[in-house]
């Protein structure tokens, strides 16, 4: 194994740490929304049923995915896989699905996709785009 291959294979921890850092930044951002009153919440729980769980009248379950820009955008297939996993996690729990919100936050855009802002639903997008 060459020195560059050995170095590349030793970077898994650094990449994972970077992802956790992004996840923590998103958690802090959610806490700031609670602190300013933009998001009514009882608790913000890191590593609850998702990366961040917001206990409120309408619970919010947030999954955070990081990706270095050098890896390119997320593919639609990857995003669908993330959403399937989130739905599967929630389906296994006692719940009231009409009150819940599932939120997927991506560090990089979806290849060919359109981003939405916090509080905006995918249902708000033009289906012809």
3D structure, described in words:
This protein is α+β, with helices and mostly antiparallel strands and 129 residues long. The longest helix has 24 residues, at 12-35. It contains three helices and four strands; from the N terminus they run H-H-E-E-E-H-E. Strand 2 (52-55) and strand 3 form a beta hairpin. It has a four-stranded mixed β-sheet, with helices on both faces.
- Label the structural class: alpha+beta
The overall pLDDT, averaged over residues, is 83
Unreliable stretches (pLDDT < 50, length at least 5) are none
Note the beta-strand portion.
Answer: 15-25%
Give the fraction of residues assigned to helices: 25-40%
Shape estimate:
globular
Largest sheet: 4 strands, mixed
Order of helices and strands: HHEEEHE
Q: Count every beta strand, where a strand is a DSSP E run of 2 or more residues.
A: 4
Count of helix runs: 3
Please describe the topology of this protein.
Elements: H1 3-9, H2 12-35, E1 43-46, E2 52-55, E3 60-65, H3 76-91, E4 101-106
Parallel strand pairs: 3-4
Antiparallel strand pairs: 1-2, 2-3
At a glance:
With 129 residues, the chain is of the alpha+beta class. The chain contains 3 helices and 4 strands; from the N terminus they run ααβββαβ.
Quickly list its features.
single chain, 129 residues, alpha+beta, four-stranded mixed sheet, 3 helices, 4 strands, 16% strand, globular
